[in-house]
Amino acid sequence: MTAAIRQYLVITGNYWAFTLTDGALRMLVVLHFHQLGYAPLDIALLFVFYEFFGVVTNLVGGYLGARMGLNRTMNVGLFLQIAALAMLAVPAAALTVPWVMAAQALSGIAKDLNKMSAKSGIKLLVPDTEQGKLYKWVAVLTGSKNTLKGVGFFLGGVLLMTAGFQGAVVAMAAALSLIWLASLFLLKRELGKSKAKPKFTDLLSKSRPINVLSAARLFLFGARDVWFVVALPVYLHAVFGWDFWQVGGFMACWIIGYGLIQTQAPRLTGDLTGKAPAILWAALLAVVPAGIAIGLGTSIPPQLTVVGGLLLFGVLFAINSSLHSYLIVSYARSDGVSLDVGFYYMSNAAGRLLGTLLSGWVYQVYGLEACLWISSGLVALAAVLATGLPERRPASA
Question: Which residue of 56, 104, 127, 380 is surrounded by the most CB atoms within 10 Å?
Answer without folding.
Answer: 104
